[in-house]
Amino acid sequence: TLNKRELKSINGGNGGYCKLIITYPNGSGEIGGGYFNGNTGKAISKAANDWCVAEIASNPGMRCGYDCQHDGYQNQSIA
């Protein structure tokens, strides 16, 4: 389980901010976010997606969504 501090400090450096929406198999959820590296909006979204995919792989049944600032938010993707 990730705590809010871990969600907020996923990655540092150049890139953009993405909100993260985590839902666990038991129905509980967390909202956090972090800065993901990338030189383009597409690269930032890919970094957020890759993070979600890795988390889902190690937590079967978990869902992970990301909503990146460069998209204008509200364009959430679910991995």
Your description of this structure?
By secondary structure, the protein is an alpha+beta fold. It has helices at residues 4-8, 41-58; strands spanning 15-23, 29-37, 63-68, 77-78. A 4-stranded antiparallel sheet has the order 2-1-3-4. Strand 1 (15-23) and strand 2 (29-37) form a beta hairpin. It is globular. The protein starts with a helix and ends with a strand. The model has no long low-confidence stretch (mean pLDDT 81).
Count helical runs: 2
Note the run of SSEs as H and E. Answer: HEEHEE
Overall pLDDT, averaged?
81
Question: What does the radius of gyration come to?
Answer: 12 Å
Strand residue percentage: 25-35%
Q: What is the CA-CA span between the terminal residues?
A: 17 Å
pLDDT under 50 segments (min length 5)?
Answer: none
Overall 3D geometry? globular
Biggest sheet layout = 4 strands, antiparallel
Which structural class fits the helix and strand makeup?
Answer: alpha+beta
Q: Strands across the major sheet, in which order?
A: 2-1-3-4
Number of strands: 4
Helix content: 25-40%
